[in-house]
Design a protein that fits this description.
The structure is a single chain. This protein is mainly alpha-helical. It contains 9 helices and 2 strands. It has a domain of 196 residues. The longest helix is centred in the middle third of the chain and has 45 residues. The chain is globular. It starts with 27 loop residues before the first helix and ends with a helix.
């Protein structure tokens, strides 16, 4: 485990937590290069992601079940894969590069996945509560703005932007939540606190990582519209009046061929960057 230095009983420096001091000197670009080399040095990562991709593909392209099932498999699989990269990456960031098999990391990820799910449920509940409040305020706000001579579409836009802002803020503040659970071994509420703390101290890094992810997400949705089968529901989506809000799993999309492979690679690379930046922020004085 690598815990935030303030949570370690005694000294929480890189040496005491068995982290290579070279980690502290790497830039975000260096972390990306390190992430790209990680699957080459640890081929089990490719195996795990291959299994996850096959599981999602079988649900989306073979089975005839509801789209929600495919989305659930995609989300769970993506974060299980990210957790595996986190555990293996933590060993790779140790002094002397710890060798890792596949059974022990998988067992560790499986044991910590429930607490991660609870933490995600807390975040999702907060976002859902915001959406419920925004929906409840829609009619009163429409009445006020129409009485003031303002088109009702303005009120709808304000509420939609508010909900989107809450989602982006949550992505920013809790972007290290999986690493806090899988690599740090924190419980649900503690993991939320640690991710909030790290993203606050490393604000620029968190903004760059989440910003890049949002750009990839937007491009992915745009590509999905043109490449995916028009007879198949692209993704899980939420309808808000005339606006459809698309929900995609991290790095995975229900589209075949090159698009699917690109999403797989993006998830793999981002997972390595996240664990590197989490470890660096956790032990950096």
């Amino acid at each position: 485990m690598v815990r935030h230095r303030t949570d370690v009983d005694g000294c929480g420096c890189s040496r005491c937590q068995d982290v290579d001091t070279a980690v502290l000197e790497r830039s975000l670009f260096d972390a990306l290069r390190w992430s790209g080399r990680l699957p080459v040095r640890h081929p089990s990562i490719l195996l795990v992601f291959g299994v996850v991709a096959a599981a999602q593909a079988s649900v989306l392209f073979v089975a005839t079940g509801p789209v929600f099932v495919g989305a659930l498999v995609g989300v769970a699989g993506a974060f299980l894969g990210r957790g595996y990269v986190g555990v293996v990456g933590r060993g790779a960031l140790a002094r002397g590069q710890r060798p890792s098999g596949i059974v022990d990391p998988l067992r560790l990820v499986a044991s910590r996945f429930p607490q991660f799910c609870v933490a995600v449920a807390v975040v999702v509940s907060g976002i859902a509560a915001t959406a419920v409040v925004a929906t409840a305020l829609r009619s009163p706000l429409d009445t006020v703005v129409v009485a003031a001579g303002v088109p009702s579409v303005v009120a709808d836009g304000v509420l939609l932007v508010t909900v989107a802002g809450v989602v982006l803020f949550s992505l920013l503040k809790f972007c290290f939540l999986p690493e806090a659970c899988f690599v740090g071994g924190y419980g649900p509420l503690e993991a939320l606190r640690v991710s909030w703390t790290i993203s606050t101290v490393r604000r620029k890094t968190a903004i760059r990582i989440v910003g890049g992810f949002v750009v990839l997400l937007a491009l992915g949705v745009a590509v999905d519209v043109h490449l995916a089968d028009p007879t198949r529901s692209l993704t899980l989506s939420v309808r808000y009046r005339e606006t459809t809000v698309v929900l995609r799993s991290f790095g995975f999309a229900p589209s075949a061929g090159l698009r699917f492979v690109v999403d797989l690679i993006a998830t793999l690379l981002y997972s390595g960057v996240f664990v590197h930046e989490y470890v660096q922020a956790a032990v950096d004085p």
